[in-house]
Amino acid sequence: MNPFIDIRLNHDLPVYQQLCLHIKRKILRGECTNYQELPSRREVAAQLSINPNTVQKAYRTMEEEGYLKTIANVKSVIIVNDALIEKIRRELVDQMLHDFVIQCLETGIDRETLIAMLNEHWHS
């Protein structure tokens, strides 16, 4: 199954980062499995009408981050293990928290009130 089939690209992030983020989210949801083969860079580029170099950059980034492995320049497979899942989870939550805190600071809310509100929502 092609994990890029349902991606919707936007202008918020560079396309290669969106491809990486898409795979990370699929790994967290259990929609990508260990050693699942990804389509070729050219296939993804054609499917999404983007430059193959953009897909190459995404695949290289995923390899550097440890959740993609290219075997003999022939096929690329997803690597999934518990440590990697936890790393991705923390990375994504950290980014969400960073954005959330910036937005909260812009409202002028104090930390104690924010924590109280967060606790209310966490337990509801």
UniProtKB/TrEMBL annotation:
PROSITE patterns: HTH_GNTR. InterPro entries: Tscrpt_reg_HTH_GntR, WH-like_DNA-bd_sf, WH_DNA-bd_sf. The keyword Transcription applies. Residues 13-82 form the HTH gntR-type domain. Keywords: DNA-binding, Transcription, Transcription regulation. One of its GO terms (molecular function) is DNA-binding transcription factor activity. It comes from Dielma fastidiosa. This is GntR family transcriptional regulator.
